[in-house]
Amino acid sequence: MNVSAENSDWQGTVAFAPMLALFVGNGGGTPRHQTVAHKIILGAKQLLVGSTHNVLGEPVVVPAGIEHQFDARGRKVVVAYLDARHYTFKDADDLAYRWRAVDPQVVSIDCLQEDAETMNPRAIDARILKAMIALEEYPTIRMAAASLGMSDSRFTHIITEQLGAPPQRWRRWLRLRRAIDLLADGQNITASAHEAGFSDSAHFSRTCVEALGVRPSVLKSVETKFVRSSEACDLALA
Question: 202 burial class (0-12, 13-18, 19+ CB within 10 angstroms)?
């Protein structure tokens, strides 16, 4: 599977919530990437995890931290990112099972978000929540750890053990999510990169490809919105 991060086939809508992002629309392809969020992919024609190719039918779940790439060119797709601070892998797996009858051609992104937000937040150590705040407030991992009275190694251990990725990757994810939110608010790529703490737009672009498989320009080209629908939705769940 040979797909570039420059792929321009993506056309659709991205919806954002604090611990959730969803894409619904015409799919594209991605190079290999991995993220700290669990991912549900519905409608893609091929998925590569490690050296294993899968031809897809029903929704598939890629656990947080697993390197993968997929090809959804010429297909209507749903892609959901479920932040591991809020969702467990079982939550993602349960949602994928519920969405097995969803038709990407007609499903409402509002309804998918509402359904995902019915999942109860995972039980998580209060220290982890404080650690995430510290990662955003302090310029180094050492300073973030010290602010909580922890050594670097202890700080790294509790984050990696409970959230499946080390602090450095979570710091990149938090910055990336901040930059993407700024893009969604209408800022340009360079301004979003700087305000979110990236050294420049190239750094932002590399991080975006590594975590999402697409460049920021792809995200800038699709419709973005913060969905807060109060209407009743029918997902036709089997």
Answer: exposed
